[in-house]
Amino acid sequence: MKKWILCGLFSGLVLTYARAQNDDAARQKAVKEMMKVEEAEGWSSAGAFGFDLGQMMILNPYVGQGQDRLGVGGAVGYLLRYKKGLLSWTNDFNVNLSVQRFGSGVVAAGSDQRQPFEKSIDLLTLGSNLAYKMSETSPWSYSADLMVLTQLLSSYQGNNGKYYITPVSAYQTQLRSKFLSPGEFIFGVGMKYEKSSNFQIYLSPVTGKFFYVADREIAALKTDDGQNVWGFEDGQQSRFDLGANVKVNYVTKLMDRIGYTTSLSLFSNYLRNPERVDVIWLNTFGVEVVKNLSLQLKVDLFYDYDKINQLTDANAVGGVSGYGRTVNVIQQFLLTYHLTF
């Protein structure tokens, strides 16, 4: 696991040292255009949203022809930045949500409940970074960093293995998660290195990580063999860790109209098993179709030893079978529109 992470980090972040000044200036200009963030004094902001919609309706279908389908979702990102002298404050807000519904009518004979929406993905992240440069010419800043991770909608799992945004009695659904159940809050202080606008490193020797599940029943969820899925003891609803955090952000233009953005966060807990490093690795490959409109491939990886994941199994009901400590991978393909305002 550690070797794989380090290989990925170096392959994504190693820069060629020897470059002509003209080539470097051109690359910097292209990167700033991709980031869509102004570096002038005062407030600046930028946003992007990717949308996917799939709809099909069949009236009086032939036998074996199929059924209605409605799918809607997408990703929304917003960045707000304030700069005054040596001080900068950067905030970002990201939502990734997708639901779909197959068929029409009621879920079962004798039921008055309509076909429910299934959940594909639901992720809400908030970030804030406050930095104060050591001097006008120094790439180093004193820095404080905050990250919040949770979800927007409730998730109900049925006996068919699928997740729905509302309870469905015919499928004997159980509530598995909802807003702030779970919620993860990471706050730290340290130093930030930012030699150029496309590469930043944040080093924090003191970072607190607070994991919280607001709902008691969700906090008590267990696997078939009796393990708590959040790593809690009986009756526990929160956990506090204190450790070190390293963040690396990198943006580059691979070739004309093709860009790559990556963000890697590593956390080691001083209080318990420091060798078990928590990982958040976000990757986006973008191809500009026309100005402000691009195709994006997003691949995000999450790993936390304390959390127990469902294991993907293509031959199992609902596509999952059993539980284990492993990497959580989220992949999406989106058509995204960028705004600067």
What's the short story on this structure?
The protein has 341 residues and is mostly beta strands. It is 9% helix and 55% strand.
Characterise the protein shown here.
This protein is mainly beta. The chain has one domain (2-340). The chain has helices spanning 2-13, 21-35, 216-219; strands at residues 42-56, 69-84, 87-102, 118-133, 140-150, 155-157, 163-164, 174-177, 183-196, 199-212, 238-255, 258-269, 278-290, 293-303, 309-312, 320-324, 328-340. Strands 1-2-3-4-5-9-10-11-12-13-14-17 form a twelve-stranded antiparallel barrel. The chain has a three-stranded antiparallel beta sheet with strand order 7-6-8, with no helix packed on it. It is globular, with a radius of gyration of 22 Å.
Adjacency order of strands in the biggest sheet: 1-2-3-4-5-9-10-11-12-13-14-17
Number of beta-strand segments? 17
Structural class estimated from helices and strands: mainly beta
**In terms of per-residue confidence, which ranges show pLDDT below 50 for 5 or more consecutive residues?**
1-35
- Overall average pLDDT: 87
Strand content: over 45%
Q: How far apart lie the N and C ends? A: 41 Å
Shape: globular
The number of domains is 1
User: What is the helical fraction, as a range of percent?
Assistant: under 10%
H-E order:
HHEEEEEEEEEEHEEEEEEE
**Rg, alpha carbons:** 22 Å
State the major sheet. Answer: 12 strands, antiparallel, barrel
Oligomer: single chain
Number of distinct helices: 3
